[in-house]
């Protein structure tokens, strides 16, 4: 596993002037925000590289491409963050070798390190999804998780995916917020944050209150978050974008309705209180509740609730001209 020697250095401590500039420069905001959170990202989102996250990543992949002829020889991940999606997919046997790429040098550094620790055949590179720095017809699979909604021109990025894919190669993107899902998740999150930070002002609950400077930092991060989160998607519109980019065999899926209605307030509550208050038993109980509600979504609600009401969207498509994998 290697990172390129010419890679830009991470900048985890942006100056106030850089933050101000980032408010009107989306790509700078992406780099500052994600460099800032790179080293703590896995903890913040409970990302691991064990059975739990391997099964989660593979579940997202299989949900949209249930019959892929595995493994792919060479895969590329865009907006890899710390490597959650591709590193776990590789561990589950989806691809033999991979390139983890991201706009944020800090993220590439962490993803490279994670891949190294896992002993996977992976290299890392700083890359903008709108101008992917690889030759045409290079990869068998291009994938990403929670990245499309950060990219200004999604159609251009999908065109770039098709360019670097071999004919018949496939792209798979998961973890994208739907428009309706994002609306209720944000509202529930804002309400939970307000209630938790107000209630914990009560003297007898003061040990449930995070230090004010940490709460202020979270609020500043939320301000940049508003700059980096560019899109939400209607699943049918996402399919139309992929077709306009030139893909065939395009198909979108959605998931998490009850799980999202439960999960977003829980995640926001957890971010608003001191970490030490959240015991292992509490975390396991939340995880089991989320698994149960995900089952309810999958077995029951997806048959009765329209797909645009679910929180997470996934999209796949194939580069024309090959066998289609
Ligand atoms: C929400 S994070 C997701 C990270 C990881 N895929 C995951 O699911 O944990 C989005 C990532 O996309 C990256 N990103 C944003 N804009 C990008 C772009 N134009 N090209 C490549 N990566 C980008 C960010 O730096 C960030 O690491």
UniProtKB/TrEMBL annotation:
Molecular function terms from GO: demethylmenaquinone methyltransferase activity; S-adenosylmethionine-dependent methyltransferase activity
Presence of keyword Transferase: yes
Domain Methyltransferase type: 76-173
Pfam family, one: Methyltransf_11
EC code(s) of this entry: 2.1.1.163
CDD domains registered for this protein in UniProt: AdoMet_MTases (cd02440)
PANTHER family on file: 2-METHOXY-6-POLYPRENYL-1,4-BENZOQUINOL METHYLASE, MITOCHONDRIAL, METHYLTRANSFERASE
Name of the protein in question: Ubiquinone/menaquinone biosynthesis C-methyltransferase UbiE
Organism this protein belongs to: Nocardia macrotermitis
